[in-house]
Write a structure and sequence with these properties.
With about 110 residues, the chain is of the alpha+beta class. The protein contains four helices and four strands; from the N terminus they run βαββααβα. Strands 2-3-1-4 form a four-stranded antiparallel sheet.
């Protein structure tokens, strides 16, 4: 499994547009083989930082999903929300390998 962590610098005045953008991407990730763990929006502290986490079974599966960027009409429409509103000022992606609790430790109560 590969998990992508995205750190967004957003325009706080465009939070509603960012929420529309995020909702579309959650749907697209889920529809194309990934698991979206959600977007995390500012609540306290910095008002211009948001995060997203989503996973794919493998890097190859993620790369297959990426082939749709700029080609698939739904992907283009989702990006149009960002581009037309200016809700995202910049973003950084980091790929992570999750270490999850094992079934054995969950059963034994560890």
């Amino acid at each position: 499994m590969i998990t992508c962590h995205v750190r967004y610098e957003i325009d706080p005045a465009q939070i509603e547009a960012f929420e529309r953008f995020a909702t579309r991407w959650m749907e697209l990730v889920e529809r194309h083989g990934g698991t979206h763990h959600g977007y995390f929006l500012p609540a306290e502290g910095a008002s211009d930082i948001a995060y997203a986490l989503f996973s794919f079974p493998s890097l190859a599966a993620y790369e297959q999903y990426r082939t749709l960027f700029g080609v698939d009409p739904e992907f283009i429409e989702a990006d149009r929300i960002r581009d037309e509103s200016g809700c995202v000022r910049r973003y950084e992606r980091t790929f992570l390998r999750p270490l999850l609790p094992s079934t054995e430790s969950q059963v034994s109560g560890s």
